[in-house]
From TrEMBL:
One Pfam family hit: Zip
Protein name: Protein GufA
A molecular function GO annotation: zinc ion transmembrane transporter activity
Keyword Membrane attached: yes
InterPro entries (alphabetical): ZIP
Cell location: Cell membrane
Organism: Hyella patelloides LEGE 07179
Topology class, membrane: Multi-pass membrane protein
Record-stated family: Belongs to the ZIP transporter (TC 2.A.5) family.
TM stretches of this protein: 6-26, 38-57, 72-91, 115-137, 143-164, 171-196, 202-223, 235-253
GO CC, alphabetical: plasma membrane
Keywords: Cell membrane, Membrane, Transmembrane, Transmembrane helix, Zinc
């Protein structure tokens, strides 16, 4: 129960990063496209480093500690990554959602309001982050991972709020929806911590699956958003900045 509680609290705090990031919407209504690319890139870089230093490498080490050979451990992590990405791919293709710049995707009904497409898109994005934090606490990697995800959520919260303002929603509504999307992460945190609490034998699989889900989000959601005219270089700079920041946090405090 201690692991589940810590996973819940840490993922809740990380999820509240979206609220902190959305605060500037109270004072500014627009954000330059170049800044959007930079902020999205920072978020993607943090997630990319988190998958490597907080999930994949510790997952391999935990498999070896359970008695698996290096080759078997590598196979477990590889299959786990594929499993996590496949699960998110299935959800991605069967639940309606909308990218900020690519438009609607998935099975969409005529009466489905656009705002809920955005909410579902961020839900798909945030759940694996909470899952990763919850799983991380099962291996002692939760603190730097929660901190990194919280930092990643700040620019994401701002971009979400600004995108909603561009759809002519009120400031209060944009801030509220942006904040609520972060509350999905504690659900993922409880799920991840619960899986790990079943037994240490599940830990390598859970960490690899969380990494696969996050990698899917990076490739399918974040990179396409920043790979647009005039913000590609800013996005690349952001990814490098975010990656180094998360790498430092994990090496220094992991």
């Amino acid at each position: 129960m201690g692991t589940i509680y810590l996973g819940f609290v840490a993922s809740l705090i990380a999820g509240l990063g979206t609220s902190v990031g959305a605060l500037p919407i109270l004072f500014a209504q627009k954000l330059d496209r170049n800044w959007q690319g930079l902020l999205l890139g920072i978020g993607g870089g943090i997630m990319l480093a988190a998958t490597t230093f907080s999930l994949i490498i510790p997952g391999q080490q935990s498999a070896i500690a359970l008695g698996y050979s290096d080759q078997s451990a590598a196979l477990i992590i590889s299959l786990g990554i594929i499993l996590g990405a496949a699960l998110l791919w299935l959800i991605h293709n069967n639940f309606p959602h909308e990218h900020f710049n690519q438009g609607p995707e998935g099975k969409i009904t005529e009466n489905f309001q656009r705002i809920w497409l955005f909410v579902l898109a961020i839900t798909l994005h945030n759940f694996p982050e909470g899952l990763a934090v919850g799983v991380g606490f099962g291996n002692g990697e939760g603190l730097p991972l929660a901190l990194g995800i919280g930092l990643q959520n700040m620019p994401e919260g701002l971009v979400v709020a600004l995108a909603l303002r561009e759809l002519n929603y009120s400031v209060a509504y944009a801030f509220g929806i942006s904040s609520l999307t972060g509350l999905v992460e504690p659900i993922g945190g409880i799920a991840g911590a619960s899986i790990v609490s079943v037994g240490q034998i599940v830990l390598p699989w859970a960490m690899a699956a969380a990494a696969g889900a996050m990698l899917f989000v990076i490739v399918d959601e974040i990179i396409p958003e920043i790979d647009r005219e005039s913000i590609t270089q800013e996005g690349t700079l952001g990814i490098m900045t975010g990656f180094v920041t998360m790498m430092f946090l994990d090496m220094a405090y992991g």
